[in-house]
Amino acid sequence: MTTTTGTAAGHRLPDFPWDSLEAARARAAQHPGGIVDLSIGTPVDETPEVLRAALAGAGDSPGYPMALGTRELRTAAAGWLRRRLGVTLADPLGADPSVVPTIGSKELVALMPTLLGLRDGTVVIPEVAYPTYEVGAVLSGLAVRRADAPPAEAAGIGLVWLNSPGNPHGRVLTDDELRAWVTWGRAHGVPIVADECYATLGWEVQPRSLLHPAVAGDDHTGLLAVHSLSKQSTAAGYRAGLLSGDPVLVRRVWEVRRHLGLLVPGPVQAAMTAALDDDAHVDEQRERYRRRRERLAAAVRAAGLRIDHSEAGLYLWATRDEDCWTTVEWLAGLGIVPAPGSFYGPAGARHVRFALTATDERIDAAAERLTA
Ligand SMILES: Cc1ncc(COP(=O)(O)O)c(C=O)c1O
After folding, report:
1. Whole-prediction pTM value?
2. Domain 50-278 belongs in CATH node 3.40.1180.10
């Protein structure tokens, strides 16, 4: 008999970082006005009716859904990409599809090296990054290298992750930066995958998709983009994401997903179709986040922190030019819990991340305490 010890069949997964915030949460909870937990970016507003009605209307779902997604969903996704991001897919309904739905985007991010069939080598991730890029590499037994610009040496690199607007810092990659990665990826035959799950949340800058013609030309070879309905449609509980781009790569991913049974439930596919056809609910939610961002950003600055980047996305990336855990302690004393920047890589160790995903009442409470 074989016994497996350690986590995840012996893989060296990073610690699940949120557990280390327990002491700060306990301290913040003692504040007479209650805790304002801004450490996790989970939406709190109601899921819009357009999704709920479509989900309920598709409740009769006896057969297996297709990993490929319904024709209606692929058509709606292609329409959304064209309308909102200026991206034209090769052929969403073709034999090699250029878009497939995913069960939220986190599973796709974590499984991407596996789905692309990478067996050895290195995955490049941003210097300061959403932790799941590293998790996916580790699970596939691959090495990780942090870089914000194309490395001079490409040997052994099998995949590059970009994230714009970025989590945690809200940085938007310029057209020149995106083009540099496209040129590098094509020169070395390395797929470039852009996680664009905050694409509709540009504040000071309009985020550009990797698949936009100004970046990619009219050819998506070697390029993939990841999108999510969690934040833009307040539907993280639905688990609804998209993968689009190079039809050869999308097919490779789709074929493995069929074998694994990674199927987006039929009613969720119906809700996604309705959501992707409707801009009004996205714009309405965006305005909610804009108001919270303005209120919180003013208070964070008034309290003496500097906000870096944060030109797009759902977070404020702030610093007091000290170790992030010192800032976390100070904020916990005010009953506020941010995420320490060290969760996202060594280069984040002097920042904290405030999520805008809290009710207006909690954002107001945080702002009052920061400016008192
Ligand atoms: C950069 C980034 N990518 C992917 C995800 C996963 O989102 P979801 O699985 O809800 O689509 C998140 C979630 O916060 C994220 O910040």
Report:
1. 0.96
2. no
